[in-house]
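Below is how a single chain appears once it has passed through the pipeline. First comes the sequence as given, then the structure the pipeline wrote out for it. We keep one example in the README because the format questions we get most often are answered faster by looking than by reading.
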Amino acid sequence: MSLLSMPFVAAAACCPSDGNGIALAKSGMGESLPLAVNLSQDPNWLVYGFERDGISYYQVNDLAGQVRVIVGKIDDQFFTLPAGKSPARTSLPSQRLVVPGNAVRREVYRRPEFALVVYGEGNDAIWSVEVPANGG
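Resulting structure:
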């Protein structure tokens, strides 16, 4: 078995970095089990990073492999893609949603310039892209 047949090594050998030394994949976005490194900091979620044409994408899947949300990033602008079986409510820096005061906050992924956070559970969850007060 060659080293490049292992997903982590293959991804690291071919792709740009997320800034934390982890490779971003070039293809596979939208798949249940893409050939990409799981970047999640929360064991309840799978986060995959992709890069294409200068745009970074962060796909969140649940543990069953269902795509829940895809957030795109160009420079300091964020947007969502219409992905998954049910549209995720997503709070972006440019378009904030009100999060219920009793919602539990879980950080799923962090980079120096933003964090991807989920408030609540299941289909009622609100995803949020949060940037530091100083902009990163």
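Confidence is low (pLDDT under 50) at residues 1-17.

See the next section for the split statistics.
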